[in-house]
Amino acid sequence: MRKNQYSSIVVGSGVSGLTGSLILAMNGHKVLLLEKAPRIGGSLSRFYRNGVPFDTGFHFTGGLHKGGVLYEMLSVLSIRELIQPVFLSEDRANLLYFESENRRYEIPYGVEKIKKRLKDYFPDEAAAIDIYFDKVQYVCDQTPTMNLLKLTTNHNDIDEDFIALEEVLNGITQNRILKDLLSCFAMCYGVQPKEVSFANHSRMCLGLYQSIARIRDGGGAFINAFRTKFKDFDVEVCSGKYITGLTDIHDDKVGRFILNTGEDISADHCLFTIHPKEILKILPKEYLSRAFINRVSSFESSTGFFSVFTILEGEYEEPDFEETITTLLPGSDVNELLTPASDSDSALVLIKSIERAGDKTYKIINTFEPACFMDIEAWKDSSTGMRPQAYYDYKKKKVEKTVERILKVFPQYKGRLKVIDSASMLTFRDYLNSPDGSAYGIKQKVGQYNLVGKLPLRNLYAAGQSSLLPGIVGAMMSSFIVARSIIKEDQYNRFLSQNLCN
């Protein structure tokens, strides 16, 4: 091929873009991977403060146990050996505190173990617990995308796609605490139980019910694994570059792509893994129907977060610092706790981890509290390092409240908990080139049809966490699915089956 001529362009280098680039390259494509930011990785990226490593958007995942969907995707990509999972305590991976009632629940992973623990807590609700997990398993069994060998670009809806999580829970139990425990993973996709379909809730949660793991070296390990594998194939990575225009359009196919640098690129295919509303800005309006424009414009943003990054200093009365996920719930209505505009306290997730950098070991507590853009809208036109004092006052108040809540649950950390940094939705917006700083792209709402697969111009495609499901598993799976539309079917089937067997 000539210079500036490629088989495929991939736009966006989050985990979906990295996955799509590698799949295409492993199937013989010459790939150009474009990233608007100065470095690749998106929310997988880590940052360092005072030598301490912190993760930006990736903190833990399900599906890494043998036979799990993430385990299998990494196997197909031949990078599984480069990723070292650190599985959380199987018996107490999730700790949930209902602050107003001073109640604590320790939830393991492993479906049967979770069911047994919940039945120990709620012996009168055994039937409801069985019904819930049977329904989750049924949904996932009916979902081809949960199996790499059954991938399809045609999404066949089931009844549970049109029923909200809240409606299902209300139909099987009236125990409000049990309902909160069964819906608490809503924090992992940022949509209220009354808005998300039971089907998508199930698809996102099953892997987390089966196992929960961190990754040694965090999201950076994924970035390094993809970089290493790219060296074996024809992948050109360009940071600081993005598409500004589409030209040479014939028979509804784009021939050339204009970059912000003025470069003129030719490609047979282009896979967008960026936010749907950013894709809409690039597509020529004369090729779009009013219905398509309205559909994309109507997508709502998922929850964002206000985050505080802390470490524990010195010795303290907890010799065995457990890597756990602790969720503080000030009330017992997950819908309300995921409504950050409320004046009352919201849910607060604490992720405890042990990180190593150089010859030092750090005990870290990262916190995440749901937030909405309304909180910081007054400063939306400011940029990093140039915010007004009122913004910093807002952050200081949020940090102080977060520390207060941590110490109420873990009083042994008093005098030892050191705040290293904090981040608002503006921070995430600017750091990750996200249009609104939301944590999970668009909301996955009941009956909603996301932007996935072929776009109105026939050689353009959409993937990413807004296309299928939020999180690393959903984002990667979207690229596996869409790749089927780009690669010849027989070749792609051989690629999947051969690599799964290796």
Give a written overview of the molecule:
The protein has 502 residues and is α/β, with parallel strands linked by helices. It has three domains: 5-83 and 217-299 and 444-501, FAD/NAD(P)-binding domain; 116-209, Orthogonal Bundle (Guanine Nucleotide Dissociation Inhibitor, domain 1), CATH 1.10.405; 303-439, no CATH class. The protein is built from 15 helices and 19 strands. The chain has helices at residues 15-26, 69-76, 111-121, 126-141, 165-172, 176-183, 198-210, 218-230, 276-282, 290-297, 334-337, 389-409, 425-432, 471-486, 489-501; strands at 5-11, 31-35, 46-49, 52-55, 85-87, 94-98, 103-107, 213-215, 235-239, 243-250, 253-259, 264-272, 304-312, 325-329, 348-357, 360-371, 417-423, 453-454, 460-462. Strands 1, 2, 9, 10, 11, 12, 18 and 19 form an eight-stranded mixed β-sheet that branches. α4 packs across α7. The radius of gyration is 22 Å and the shape is globular.
Keywords:
Guanine Nucleotide Dissociation Inhibitor, domain 1, 3 domains, seven-stranded mixed sheet, 502 residues, 19 strands, FAD/NAD(P)-binding domain, alpha/beta, eight-stranded mixed sheet, single chain
The oligomeric status of these chains comes to single chain
**Structural category:** alpha/beta
Find the CATH topology of the largest domain. Answer: FAD/NAD(P)-binding domain
Low-pLDDT stretches are none
Helix content: 25-40%
Taking Cα atoms only, what radius of gyration do you get, to the nearest Å? 22 Å
CATH architecture of the largest domain: 3-Layer(bba) Sandwich
Distance between the termini: 31 Å
Number of strands: 19
Assign an overall shape: globular
In CATH terms, the superfamily of the largest domain is FAD/NAD(P)-binding domain
Mean pLDDT: 91
Task: Count up the helices.
Answer: 15
Number of domains: 3
The CATH class of the largest domain is Alpha Beta
Percentage beta strand? 15-25%
**Largest sheet entry:** 8 strands, mixed
